[in-house]
Amino acid sequence: MCNLICLNVEALMRVTHAVLPGMVERKRGAIVNISSDASTILLSYPLYSVYAATKAYVDQFSRCLAVEYKNKGINVQCQSSYISHEATVAIFISLHME
């Protein structure tokens, strides 16, 4: 669980913190974050709670940054996608239910 949070939340924060000052100085830039529709439309499955929560964080963080930095010439977007298959879900559940 901690690895998932570090990957989807902490890494996002660190990279954003690293690139924003240069973009603000140049008065332009773009940040494109990747989320997942798991945070909004995915049916509830066992063990998806932390994953879905971290992806919801990415989405909301991106929305807030977009508003905060729009006047500084920085465009922030969050791309979400839902690509799944019943077999993918079954494999995920079988691996994590043991």
Automatic annotation (TrEMBL):
Subcellular location: Endoplasmic reticulum
Presence of keyword Oxidoreductase: yes
Single annotated GO MF: ketoreductase activity
Pfam families: adh_short (PF00106)
This protein's record includes keyword Oxidoreductase: yes
InterPro entries per UniProt: Sc_DH/Rdtase_CS (IPR020904), SDR_fam (IPR002347), VLCFA-Steroid_DH (IPR051019)
Domain of life: Eukaryota
Any GO CC annotation of this UniProt entry: endoplasmic reticulum
Keywords, sorted A to Z: Oxidoreductase
Family annotation (PROSITE patterns): ADH_SHORT
PANTHER family the UniProt entry points to: RH59310P
Family from the record: Belongs to the short-chain dehydrogenases/reductases (SDR) family.
Name of this protein: Very-long-chain 3-oxoacyl-CoA reductase
Organism ancestry: Eukaryota, Viridiplantae, Streptophyta, Embryophyta, Tracheophyta
